[in-house]
Write a structure and sequence with these properties.
This protein is an alpha+beta fold. 28% of the residues lie in helices and 24% in strands. The protein has two domains: 219 residues, Quinone Oxidoreductase, Chain A, domain 1 (Alpha-Beta Complex); 79 residues, 3-Layer(aba) Sandwich (Rossmann fold). The protein is globular, with a radius of gyration of 19 Å.
Length: 311
C-alpha cells in the first residue's frame, strides 16, 4: 500500500510502497477514506516534537473496516465506518477509573514506542521497520489499528467530517462542553482559529456563550470564525490582543478536549446530523495522497479550514 513516510525532520514526506501486516489480537485493518492535515503532524515533521523514525504520519482520519484480528470484541465488524482516536483508553488504569480517560497510559505506550498498544509495529518496508504515529498512521491507504482506537460513524456523516471530528473537532468542541462550564451568557475568547479554534467557537455558540471573541492574524480565518459564531474578532497582527486580559479571567487547559471519545464523538456526530454543528464549513482544500506535502504547506500559508487528504 502507499503511505506517507517521514524519515528525517525537515524533509518532505515520501510516498512509499509499504508492507502492512495482518491485524493482531484486538486489532482491525481499515481502508482510509479521509485524513485531516493537522498542525500537530507538522510539529513532528519539522522536529519541534520528536517521535521514532521512520514513521508513517497521520493521526486524524476515518475509514471502512476491512478485516478483524483475533479476539476483537464485536463492537465493530467488517464494512463498518469508523473514526480514529489517537488517545485510546483501557478503562482500568487510575486515569480511566478517576474519570480522566484522556490521560490513560495506553496513549503513552503508543507515543513512546512508535507501535500499537502492545508496543510493536505492523509496518515494514523490505527488511526495514517503520513506526506508527500515535497508534494511527492514517496518511496511508490502509491502517492496522487497535479496536479501542476507533469509534463507529453513523450513516449520514461524510468521511471527511468523521476524520476531522476524531481530532480537531472533539478537541475544540469538547474543551468548551467539558471544561469551560457555565458558559451561557458569559464571554469566551479563543486565541487562534484554525481547525481546533474554529471548533471551540462552534462549541461556544452551542452552549450560548456571549460574547465569543476570536483572535488570529489571518483575516480569512477570522471571517470564517464570524460565520461560525464569533460575535467579535481581533486581528492580533494589527491590534493589541493583550487588551483582553484585564478583569477576572481564567485560562482553561484541556488535552484532547478532556474528552471521553466513546461518548463525545457520538454526541458530536448527533449534533452535526441535527444541524447544530455546521462542520461542513470547516473543510478546506482536498488533496490526493501524492500531494500530501502540499496539504501541510497550506497550513503554513494560512489556508481557511481544515485541509483533507483523500487516499
Amino acid at each position: 500500500m502507499r503511505a506517507a513516510v517521514l524519515r528525517e525532520p525537515g524533509l518532505p514526506l515520501e510516498i512509499e510502497d509499504v508492507e502492512l501486516d495482518a491485524p493482531g489480537t484486538g486489532e482491525l485493518t481499515v481502508r482510509v477514506e479521509a485524513a485531516g492535515a493537522c498542525h500537530s503532524d507538522l510539529h513532528y515533521m519539522l522536529g519541534d516534537i520528536t517521535c521514532r523514525l521512520p514513521v508513517v504520519m497521520g493521526h486524524e482520519g476515518a475509514g471502512i473496516v476491512e478485516a478483524l484480528g483475533p479476539g476483537t470484541s464485536g463492537a465493530v465488524t467488517v464494512g463498518d465506518r469508523v473514526a480514529f482516536m489517537w488517545r485510546p483508553h483501557c478503562g482500568r488504569c487510575a486515569a480511566c477509573i478517576s474519570g480522566n480517560p484522556v490521560l490513560c497510559a495506553s496513549g503513552r505506550v503508543q507515543a513512546t514506542t512508535g507501535g500499537l498498544l502492545d508496543g510493536t509495529t505492523r509496518l515494514r518496508l523490505g527488511g526495514e521497520t517503520l513506526h506508527h504515529f500515535l497508534g494511527v498512521s492514517c496518511l496511508a491507504e490502509r491502517v492496522v489499528i487497535s479496536e479501542r482506537a476507533v469509534v463507529p460513524v453513523p450513516d449520514g456523516v461524510p468521511a471527511e467530517i468523521a476524520a476531522i471530528t476524531g481530532c480537531a473537532v472533539v478537541t475544540g468542541v469538547s474543551a468548551v462542553l467539558n471544561v469551560v462550564q457555565r458558559a451561557a451568557g458569559r464571554g469566551i475568547v479563543v486565541f487562534g482559529v484554525g481547525g481546533v479554534g474554529l471548533s471551540s467557537v462552534m462549541g461556544a455558540r452551542l452552549v450560548g456563550a456571549d460574547p465569543i471573541v476570536a483572535v488570529d492574524v489571518d483575516v480569512d480565518e477570522l471571517a470564517l470564525a464570524r460565520r461560525l459564531g464569533a460575535t467579535h474578532t481581533v486581528n492580533a497582527g494589527s491590534s493589541d490582543a493583550v487588551e483582553l486580559v484585564q478583569g477576572q479571567k481564567r485560562i482553561v487547559g484541556s488535552l484532547y478536549g478532556s474528552a471521553n471519545p466513546l461518548i463525545d464523538l457520538p454526541r458530536i456526530f448527533g449534533l452535526y446530523l441535527s444541524g447544530r454543528l455546521p462542520l461542513d464549513d470547516l473543510i478546506g482544500e482536498r488533496f490526493p495522497l501524492g500531494a500530501v506535502n502540499d496539504a501541510y504547506a497550506r497550513l503554513t500559508m494560512g489556508g481557511v479550514g481544515r485541509s483533507v487528504v483523500v487516499p
